[in-house]
Amino acid sequence: MLARWAIREGRSGTVLHASRTTASAPVSAGEAGPAAALSDDLAKLSRDIASHIAELNQSRARTPGGQTPQQGSTPLTDESPAPSNSD
Does the predicted model carry a pTM greater than 0.85? Predict the structure, then answer.
């Protein structure tokens, strides 16, 4: 699984962090094998996103007024496009 994702500031839509996560859990034999592997991959994606949210919250707590420092923002480029909102 390759997932490109971004964390945006809720009001302005400014990208605070953009990244990609690659995961490829081994698929075990049996009917439930593929579902279990996908579940492991999604768990890795969730951990990556949660980790970056925690980092942003910590930096916001250290900044006067609770604003996220602009130097911490990551603009999206052609190499890291914004995730789509489509299903």
Answer: no
How many Å apart are CA 26 and CA 23, to the nearest integer?
10
The helix (run of H) or strand (run of E) holding residue 19 is strand 15-22
* Residues 42-56: tens digit of each pLDDT: 999 999 999 999 999
Q: What is the DSSP letter of 80?
A: S
Closest CA to 16 of 64, 58, 78: 58
pLDDT tens digits for range 7-57: 999 999 999 999 999 999 999 999 999 999 999 999 999 999 999 999 999
The structural domains of the chain, with segments of one domain joined by +, span: 2-65
| Long-range CB contacts (within 8 A, 24+) of 53-58 | 53/7, 55/17, 56/7, 56/16, 56/17
